[in-house]
Amino acid sequence: MARRRMIYEGKAKILYEGPEPGTLIQFFKDDTTAGNGEKHELIEGKGVLNNRLSEHFMTGLASIGVPTHFIKRLNMREQLVRAVEMIPLEVVVRNVAAGSMSKRLGIEEGTQLPRPIIEFYLKNDELNDPIVSEEHIIAFGWATQQDLDDMVSLGLRVNDFMSGMMMGVGIKLVDFKIEIGRVFEGDFQRLIVADEISPDSCRLWDVESGQKLDKDVFRRGLGDLSEAYTEVAKRLGVMPRQNGSSSGPKLVH
């Protein structure tokens, strides 16, 4: 069967025309980048893991009433999603100081924050996705005040759900990024979680050892990224643990 028309290709995913109006097929690539694409490698199987993990998180969010674009997984690398009008912002929720926050503010990495802190970044590769204030967002028309209120609410709800899920398997949710889109229902619009939620977009640390189980493994050259993502999948039950098998991990269908 011929591939459907490609709509968009990003660093880690490709969007194709969906089978029905208002739908898209989201394909997860093995490409892995850091530093706004300055570091790039193909890591076999990463796209499969991210597809399954994003399905797991999106399905869980839907079960507690958080709206998402996810409809269903189609195969090991593709999922069917709703087409949305993307807001050109990344919503970052931080529970622990790490990464750019530590560098920018001189806060020691690993410092527990007094409460979750939400930051907004403009999605613009040429500008390296700069941090922006709510004043910038409203002044330049990237979102309205109501949109901002709704994005903060969505970010905090996702944080509550993800923090609990991860802590239950011995993983600390340090921070994460979500992207949000608009869907229109008659004369009304609402905001929903779109794109993906995976170790590509989260910082995940083992509670006991502090071992990194996210894309920082790749960014900082700390080991095998595939092993780190596989460990997350196993702990969450997305992938079974192999007992005495040398045939390698197999994903659940």
Structural class call reads alpha+beta
Broad shape:
globular
- Parts with pLDDT < 50 across at least 5 consecutive residues: 244-253
The fourth-level CATH homologous superfamily of the largest domain is ATP-grasp fold, B domain
Order of helices and strands: EEEEEHEEEHEEHHEEEHH
Give the topology:
Blueprint: E1 6-9, E2 13-17, E3 23-28, E4 31-34, E5 39-42, H1 46-63, E6 70-73, E7 78-82, E8 85-96, H2 99-105, E9 112-122, E10 131-132, H3 134-139, H4 145-167, E11 171-185, E12 188-194, E13 202-206, H5 216-219, H6 225-235
Antiparallel strand pairs: 1-2, 2-3, 3-7, 4-5, 6-7, 8-9, 8-11, 9-10, 11-12, 11-13
Any overview of this molecule?
With 253 residues, the protein is an alpha+beta fold. It folds into two domains: 6-83 and 225-235, Phosphorylase Kinase, domain 1 (2-Layer Sandwich), CATH 3.30.200.20; 85-206, ATP-grasp fold, B domain (D-amino Acid Aminotransferase, Chain A, domain 1). It has helices at residues 46-63, 99-105, 134-139, 145-167, 216-219, 225-235; strands spanning 6-9, 13-17, 23-28, 31-34, 39-42, 70-73, 78-82, 85-96, 112-122, 131-132, 171-185, 188-194, 202-206. The strands form three sheets. Strands 8, 9, 10, 11, 12 and 13 form a six-stranded antiparallel beta sheet that branches. Mean pLDDT is 93; it is low at 244-253.
What would a concise description of this structure say?
The chain has helices spanning 46-63, 99-105, 134-139, 145-167, 216-219, 225-235; strands at residues 6-9, 13-17, 23-28, 31-34, 39-42, 70-73, 78-82, 85-96, 112-122, 131-132, 171-185, 188-194, 202-206. Strands 8, 9, 10, 11, 12 and 13 form a six-stranded antiparallel beta sheet that branches. It has a five-stranded antiparallel beta sheet with strand order 1-2-3-7-6. Helix content is 27%, strand content 33%.
